[in-house]
Amino acid sequence: MCESSVNYCECNPCFNGGSCQSGVESYYCHCPFGVFGKHCELNSYGFEELSYMEFPSLDPNNNYIYVKFSTIKSHALLLYNYDNQTGDRAEFLALEIAEERLRFSYNLGSGTYKLTTMKKVSDGHFHTVIARRAGMAASLTVDSCTENQEPGYCTVSNVAVSDDWEGKVNYERATSFSSKKPQCG
Predict the structure, then answer these.
(1) What's the rounded mean pLDDT across residues 168-175?
(2) What number is the average pLDDT over the span 29-33?
(3) What is the pLDDT of residue 184?
(4) Under DSSP, is residue 128 helix (H, G, I), strand (E, B) or coil?
(5) Which of 114, 137, 138, 179 is the most buried (most CB within 10 A)?
(6) What architecture does CATH give domain 8-44?
(7) Any idea of the CA torsion for 13, 19, 23, 28, to the nearest 10 degrees?
(8) Which residues contact 38 (CB under 8 A, 6 or more apart)?
(9) Beta-carbon contacts of residue 145 (< 8 Å; ≥ 6 apart)
(10) What is the pLDDT of residue 146?
(11) Kindly report the CA angle at 9 between 172 and 126, in degrees rounded to 5?
(12) Beta strand pairing status for 101-107 and 92-98?
């Protein structure tokens, strides 16, 4: 029997200047800054320093926040939502980068709670974040980790997370595709 290696990058499956790395059974596209996706087919939108987007107030009881971002900043505010009160009773919700790590903070009027992952995210690569809150219970997940990762590296929670917290995100609804999967000839 002869063994021959297959070059999965031969048909150049990566878009938008992505570079292809052939593997044993498949390939991986390394995407340049500003694009992401299996084939570097999705565009991201960046912001100048000190710029922001404004959205309506979040639900004060339950939140499911899904964000994909890339930064080299060791301190940054990704999301901030607040009520109109001031002082210790002021309610807020924040998703931020502090000392290169992701932090989810909130106050529902009885003190500030903070969840921080150990994984550093200020590396210029895209990271996927899911922050969930139901009343005082909250969890924060950054990227997908293997089961052998130490606790708190990618996921932190102030409660025992059950199957009720599992949620599926339909990526096609969250972003729009600019191209179809390439076909090799």
Answers:
(1) 35
(2) 86
(3) 54
(4) strand
(5) 138
(6) Ribbon (2.10)
(7) -70
(8) 29, 181
(9) 119, 153, 154, 155
(10) 74
(11) 45
(12) antiparallel
Assign a CATH topology to domain 62-172: Jelly Rolls (2.60.120)
**Tell me: the pLDDT tens digits for 43-88?**
776 777 777 777 778 888 888 998 888 888 999 999 888 887 777 6
Question: Domain spans of the chain?
Answer: 8-44, 62-172
pLDDT score at 27: 93
pLDDT tens, residue by residue, 78-121:
988 888 777 767 788 999 999 999 999 988 878 888 999 999 99
Greater model confidence, 32 or 176: 32
At 179, which amino acid appears? S
Output the six-digit token pair for 134.
């139901």
Distance of CA 8 to the CA centre of its chain: 28
Mean pLDDT of 119-129: 90
d(CA 181, CA 185): 13
* Mean pLDDT of all residues in 146-159: 81
43-49: long-range pairs with CB below 8 Å, 24+: 43/16, 43/178, 44/68, 44/70, 44/126
3-state secondary structure 43-101: ECCCCCCCCCCCCCCCCCCEEEEEEEECCCCCCEEEEEEECCCCHHHCCEEEEEEECCE
